[in-house]
Amino acid sequence: MSEEVNEQVLELDPDQLQELIGEQSDTLPPIEIELDAYDQGEFQKGIDETSHLAGVITALLNTGVTEGFVLDYLLNKATIEHNLETAKINKDMNIEMVKHQRVVADKHEL
């Protein structure tokens, strides 16, 4: 910003400044789409999941932890769930591979 613009900003009262900031928001205006355009079941599922996530975030923030902690917690929780699912898939794959190897070994014995 130029010096002149900086001085003009400093001369604004809080209401004028808030109005100026509000006009330069990074958020997009809402898009109006008919509700019939959505799969109602999936739409409701998204609302429920988002409401749950918002509740978890709010509850954690209300305990006094930082936003960074909340985000780290959510990321770590998702990572642990993913790792457990990956381990289960690997275990099931290993079992199937052993079964296949046994069948191949039995064929060679015949």
Give structural notes.
It contains 4 helices and no strands. It has helices at 3-10, 14-23, 40-62, 67-109. With 110 residues, it is mostly helical. The N and C termini lie far apart (84 Å).
Give a quick set of tags describing it.
110 residues, 76% helix, 0% strand, mainly alpha
User: What is the number of E strands?
Assistant: 0
* Shape, principal axes of CA atoms: elongated
Bin the strand percentage.
under 5%
Helix % is over 70%
Question: How would you summarize this macromolecular structure in one to three sentences?
Answer:
The protein is mainly α. It is 76% helix and 0% strand.
What is the topology?
Blueprint: H1 3-10, H2 14-23, H3 40-62, H4 67-109
